């Protein structure tokens, strides 16, 4: 009890210093991000409902495929967090030139790392699936769909990192709209169209198409510096 009476350990529990401007800015940044999460989770539910009628083998291969794909693009999420921090610091210091360099450097590093991981995973996919399941049919289908999407992983790494960079510049609305368009107007229609002919492989072709189109949109957004620098 004596320790808590010491002046150096005094705690201030006052909550009267909230800034309306800060709360307004935080809401403006976070609301599109919340919408993006809802859209992505909703799209995942729809995709699962498309895959489920294909049978237990397809559903199992789909789940294992997503697990292995996450290993591939996790480094891009790390670079995305770093890009958010670096962009925020650079723009806060009014160093637009430094912000530009940080953004493109993070994107390049993310794409290179994910590409290297994708190449390694492409060749070692059979070995990895042998560890995940003893079912031969699930293994073969899992390797097939994973190799389909690995070709688009570099273009998926780019928007993953760019999202983080743009968040550091307070630019979240347009990137969230890119996600909405990609998930609901590219991924789901492609999955519905190709699943009838190619089964689970058709669904993953839709995933690859979504990655590629979103990658192009986000690269163009980052290149259009006037748009996001004006917001920041």
Give structural notes.
The protein is mainly α. The chain is 84% helix and 0% strand. The protein has one domain (36-231). It contains eight helices and no strands. The mean pLDDT is 90.
- The total count of strands amounts to 0
Which blocks of ≥5 consecutive residues have pLDDT under 50? none
Structural class by helix and strand composition: mainly alpha
- Report Rg: 21 Å
- Coarse morphology: elongated
β-strand percent reads: under 5%
Specify the biggest β-sheet: none
Q: What count of structural domains? A: 1
H/E series, N to C?
HHHHHHHH
> What's the tally of helices?
8
Helical fraction: over 70%
Distance between the amino and carboxyl termini: 47 Å
User: Please, what is the average pLDDT?
Assistant: 90
In short:
With 232 residues, the chain is an all-alpha fold. It has helices at residues 20-51, 56-92, 96-132, 136-150, 153-168, 173-198, 200-223, 225-231.
Helix/strand layout:
Elements: H1 20-51, H2 56-92, H3 96-132, H4 136-150, H5 153-168, H6 173-198, H7 200-223, H8 225-231
Helix pairs in contact: 1-6, 2-3, 2-4, 2-5, 3-4, 3-5, 4-7, 5-7, 6-7
Which features does this protein show?
single chain, 232 residues, mainly alpha, elongated
């Amino acid at each position: 009890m004596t320790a808590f009476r010491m002046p150096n350990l005094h705690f201030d529990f006052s909550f009267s210093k909230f800034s309306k401007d800060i709360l307004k800015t935080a809401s403006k940044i976070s609301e599109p991000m919340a919408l993006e999460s809802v859209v992505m989770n909703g799209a995942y539910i729809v995709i699962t409902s498309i895959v489920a009628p294909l049978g237990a083998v397809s559903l199992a291969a789909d789940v294992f495929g997503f697990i292995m794909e996450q290993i591939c693009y996790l480094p891009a999420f790390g670079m995305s967090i770093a890009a958010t921090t670096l962009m925020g610091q650079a723009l806060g210091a009014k160093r637009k030139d430094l912000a530009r360099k940080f953004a493109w450097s993070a994107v390049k590093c993310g794409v290179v790392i994910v590409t290297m991981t994708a190449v390694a995973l492409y060749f070692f996919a059979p070995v990895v699936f042998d560890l995940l399941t003893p079912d031969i049919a699930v293994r073969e289908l899992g390797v097939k769909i994973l190799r389909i999407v690995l070709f688009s992983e570099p273009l998926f790494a780019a928007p993953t990192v760019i999202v983080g960079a743009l968040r550091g510049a307070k630019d979240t609305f347009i990137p969230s709209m890119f996600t909405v368009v990609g998930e609901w107007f590219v991924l789901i229609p492609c999955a519905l169209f190709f699943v009838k002919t190619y089964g689970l492989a058709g669904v993953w072709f839709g995933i690859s198409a979504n990655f590629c189109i979103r990658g192009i949109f986000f690269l163009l957004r980052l290149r259009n510096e006037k748009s996001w620098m004006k917001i920041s």
